[in-house]
Design a protein that fits this description.
The chain has 2 domains: 2-76, Nucleic acid-binding proteins (OB fold (Dihydrolipoamide Acetyltransferase, E2P)); 80-239, Up-down Bundle (de novo design (two linked rop proteins)). The chain contains 7 helices and 9 strands; from the N terminus they run E-E-E-E-E-H-H-H-H-E-E-E-H-E-H-H. The chain has helices at residues 78-82, 85-101, 109-120, 128-142, 174-177, 199-220, 228-239; strands spanning 2-15, 19-26, 30-36, 53-59, 68-75, 148-152, 161-164, 170-173, 185-186. Strands 3-2-1-4-5 form a 5-stranded antiparallel sheet. Strand 4 (53-59) and strand 5 form a beta hairpin. The chain is elongated, with a radius of gyration of 20 Å.
């Protein structure tokens, strides 16, 4: 078995004395793991940073084997990330969430395209937080937990939507919420594509998308905790 594709690195872990297991994300093959011989050597170590775009060739004797990679670095995103604390936190959050959420060997070409576009915007930190929020919404959609924010689930109204139901992920208006308002999640205008997209409002919106990651996605994956890297990124938005 063999395939070749472009993708980006999600993470690595040491394997034996001088090899590394790469966790990558590609459009054609989804999230994939494989062994890189000499992966801890000086030749490869500078390139094995999360987010690095790679030309990948994967080979295995049988399809269900872990297989081995050969790689050619295409472009690094490490320099941009290292130069900006918030960029580094955001990049780490994207890579760890994809590694956490996505099943192995299942193609998700639309999400891959969104993810690659997001990482290519790292230098533009003035717009990146909003792009990241939109990406998290797309991630939830891809996993089957997308938010329906078009109409109030209780009244059918399309205006005055200020809450999200934690059960259904649907929008709720102030009138529709009634006595249940204190049990609902906030629906900041930025989630509706409105407002000025200030960092504080984006952080509030990420609290809502984060609820579904924690209470819907994580239980489906065996109640593993959401990666701490995401919380660190949201915390940076809150404080800055």
């Amino acid at each position: 078995m063999e395939w070749r594709a472009e993708g980006f690195l999600l993470g690595t872990r040491r394997h034996g004395e001088n090899a590394a297991i790469l966790d990558v994300f590609t459009a054609e093959h989804g999230r994939y793991a494989g062994v890189l011989r000499g992966g801890t050597s000086r030749k490869y170590t500078p390139h094995l940073q999360p987010g690095t775009q790679l030309d990948l060739t994967w080979k295995a004797r049988l399809e269900d084997h872990i297989g081995s990679f050969t790689i050619e670095p295409l472009r690094s995103r490490a320099a941009v990330a290292m130069a900006n604390r918030r960029a580094l936190a955001g990049l780490t959050s994207v890579c760890t969430l994809l590694s956490f959420c996505m099943p192995e060997r299942a193609p998700h070409p639309a999400l891959y395209a969104r993810s690659e576009q997001l990482l290519d915007l790292l230098e533009q930190q003035e717009i990146w937080p909003l792009a990241y929020l939109n990406w998290e919404q797309a991630l939830l959609e891809e996993l089957g937990y997308g938010l329906d924010l078009s109409v109030c689930a209780a009244t059918g109204a399309t205006e005055g939507l200020i809450y999200v139901s934690p059960r259904s992920g649907c929008a709720v208006s102030a009138k529709g919420a009634g006595e249940w308002a204190d049990k609902l999640l906030p629906l900041p205008p930025v989630l509706l594509g409105e407002g000025d997209a200030e960092d504080g409002e984006i952080a509030l919106a990420l609290g809502t998308t984060g609820y579904f990651l924690e209470h819907k996605v994580a239980p489906a994956l065996g109640h593993r905790p959401i990666p701490e890297a995401r919380a660190r990124y949201v915390d940076l938005l809150t404080r800055q």
